[in-house]
Design a protein that fits this description.
The complex is a heterodimer of chains A (126) and B (130).
Chain A lengths: L6 H6 L9 H25 L5 H8 L2 H29 L3 H30 L3
Helix pairs in contact in A: 2-4, 4-5
Chain B lengths: L19 H32 L1 H11 L2 H28 L6 H30 L1
Helix pairs in contact in B: 1-2, 1-3, 3-4
The chains are: A mainly alpha (126), B mainly alpha (130).
Chain lengths: 126, 130
């Protein structure tokens, strides 16, 4: 016997984290969707005056609100995946590392929710 | 040392001159962390705008100062550098552009394009403000 792992776990190929290539794959998927979103966002935000009324008027367009929510969700998911790698590489103490990843994941989730709620509040005009 | 002198050295970070690609690699991480903060900044802008014109004005005032502008300029450049270098990584992920010459050229191209995009974005933005 060459290995202690069972044939079933070899076939599943998910490794010790039981996630396989999910982290890697989702990082790439969010990167792909962010390509058009970032170009659109960068040049839209640059090409409008920075007054409150202009910004809210822009966010109130349904297509803009949808794209912004998509941008916020993919950005924070992409950020969460990337920050986890950075923490795993540079924080060597196991407990501090786990705590940092939990904190970073929580902050990404929190800011994503605040962002989505803000866009919805502006676009639904309350 | 003579028998070993032709052998490649392990990259000891204190004495080894990093190639451009390696500098871009660590910059990709740094800009990634900066952009995570930038994304939080965007959420702050959106949530103050959702709150009231007055709270939005406070955010706007802070971003309109010299340090706010430097922050936004750095954020714009970070965004486009991470964007261009990220596309470079996506090409590598599908197995393209691995020979050293291409790696060096794509590194220079990524830096060049991100500077052009930063200048273009700020040119448009200052025209709108002025």
């Amino acid at each position: 016997m060459d290995s202690l792992s069972t044939p079933l776990s070899k076939v599943k190929g998910l490794g010790s984290a039981k996630e396989g290539t999910t982290h890697f794959w989702h990082q790439r998927l969010t990167a792909l969707i962010l390509i058009p979103l970032v170009l659109w966002f960068g040049f839209s935000i640059a090409s409008m005056p920075v007054e409150h009324a202009t910004l809210t008027g822009w966010v109130q367009q349904p297509a803009v609100a949808i794209a912004l929510i998509l941008l916020i969700l993919s950005t924070f998911y992409h950020a969460q995946l990337g920050l986890q790698i950075v923490i795993e590489d540079y924080v060597s103490t196991h407990s501090t590392r786990t705590a940092s990843i939990i904190l970073s994941n929580f902050l990404c989730l929190l800011f994503a929710i605040i962002g989505v709620v803000a866009v919805l509040k502006i676009s639904l005009g309350s | 040392m003579t028998p070993h002198s032709k052998q490649p050295l392990s990259p000891h970070l204190q004495i080894y001159r990093l190639p451009l690609s390696a500098i871009l690699s660590i910059t990709h991480r740094a800009t990634g962390v900066i952009l995570a903060l930038g994304a939080m900044m965007l959420v702050l802008i959106l949530s103050t705008a959702a709150n009231s014109p007055e709270t939005y004005a406070t955010t706007h005032q802070q971003l309109d100062t010299w340090y706010g502008q430097i922050f936004l300029l750095g954020l714009t450049f970070s965004l486009y550098l991470h964007f261009c270098n990220g596309i470079r990584h996506l090409f590598w992920d599908v197995g393209l552009g691995f020979d050293l010459d291409t790696v060096d050229k794509s590194a220079k191209l990524a830096i060049f394009v991100s500077i052009v995009f930063t200048v273009a974005t700020w040119w448009v933005a200052t025209r709108m403000a002025g």
